[in-house]
Design brief:
Helix content is about 80%, strand content about 0%. The chain is an all-alpha fold. It has one domain. The longest helix is centred in the N-terminal third of the chain and has 28 residues.
Length: about 200
């Protein structure tokens, strides 16, 4: 059981570190505004990480309890929020002297919203949980779900700490400063791409 919980923690760290909208956003916040706003963003994002982990655990063991309507609503909300972030990124790129994105100025609240609507989180979390837990599915019960969630939280926090350290490195921030407008535009179009991908695969 301990080995399985450790594997769960490592898998959640992998989910956090897998490139996607969340990683791109924390990279932009951290390199543009520093480690503290990046840490606040990731702290808010943790709520979403744990929600997706719980949904993945329930789907893996008791899939019949989850209505497809839940995932449809979350997918649409995710796509709309990513479009909103993309528009904000383009506006910031057009006026680089205006400062960070709005979500960089209120990182905790935006991190929570971002985490709860991140379209990458559920399929990736479910995939890695399936590879880790499926062979011992009988160990996943109502009584052990809190332990798996705790392991998930520890894995996410460890990965978050690594990301905060990386985005605060002088070399990373220096490279970002040289190409900030172009990076911001690239992030914007990646947000649009993730939004389109989510809606195209809604079925």
């Amino acid at each position: 059981m301990l080995t399985l919980l450790l594997a769960t923690a490592l898998s959640c760290a992998l989910v956090v570190l897998t490139p996607g909208p969340g990683v791109l956003t924390v990279l932009h916040i951290g390199t543009g505004s520093g480690r503290r706003p990046a840490a606040h963003f990731l702290l808010g994002h943790l709520a979403g990480d744990l929600m997706w982990a719980l949904l993945a655990l329930v789907a893996l063991r008791w899939v019949q309890l989850l209505s497809p309507a839940v995932f449809t609503a979350l997918t649409v909300a995710s796509a709309l929020y990513l479009v909103y972030l993309g528009v904000g990124a383009l506006a910031a790129a057009a006026a680089p002297d205006s400062g960070a994105f709005a979500y960089a100025r209120r990182p905790l609240a935006h991190g929570a919203v971002f985490g709860l609507t991140n379209p990458k989180s559920y399929p990736v979390t479910l995939a890695v949980f399936t590879s880790v837990i499926a062979g011992n599915i009988e160990l996943l019960t109502g009584a052990t779900v809190p332990l798996f969630l705790l392991a998930s939280a520890l894995g996410c926090i460890a990965a978050d700490a690594l990301l905060v350290w990386i985005v605060g490195l002088h070399t990373v921030r220096k490279l970002y400063a040289r190409a900030a407008p172009w990076i911001t535009r690239g992030v914007a179009f990646l947000f649009f791409g993730f939004a389109a991908y989510s809606l195209l695969h809604l079925g």
